Task: structure prediction
Amino acid sequence: MAREIVLDTETTGFEPAAGHRLVEIACLEIEDFIPTGRSFHVYIDPCRDMPPDAERVHGLSSAFLTGKPRFEHPDVVDAFLDFVADAPIIAHNAGFDRAFVNHELGVINRERLHESRWIDTLALARVRFPGMHNSLDALCKRFKISLSEREKHGALIDAKLLAAVYLELKGGRERRLELQTQAMVNAAVVASRAAYGERPRPLAFRSTEAERETHASFIRDVLKSDELWKKHGL
Result:
């Protein structure tokens, strides 16, 4: 099966080269365009202050993040790399997330995640909807994906929304309809193979006694065999 990872991050700012850091990573697993329910989510102590503008976006304060594991902690970097493994990584405006993830990996001398592994849903959306607003919010509204759970930007909720958007960009509703249709066909095949039990109350004859006698005479005098009828209990 084709395994892919949907990823979103939150940070202290826009540029890792300017000293900004990751503060949250969330990943969701999908296989053959179907979410598996497996996820990875962690908050990270950036070991620096949280700019007010960034806190207004995601709501993560320095007080909340202080004491959380640092990126180099095995519960973060090793758990993250184990979860992602060798799967393609799906992100919206993937260059942003890739820059921060690879910067953190570089700081601790770990191998970076190559650009070829990343699938950018923003680029996919621009091909499908050229000249339109293609932010995550705009795509959710276009695909009628509910934003009711989202009060602020958070990596986990945004990863869930992005997974839904990605599936729609890849033909989600049509793909689900195909799967549902195949499931209905499979169910019909199973049902057609099921054995029927005896009725607790046999149906009454719909033929008259005279009609049944005529039928019996036909079998006896014309067909000269009642083997087929006995086989079916007639």
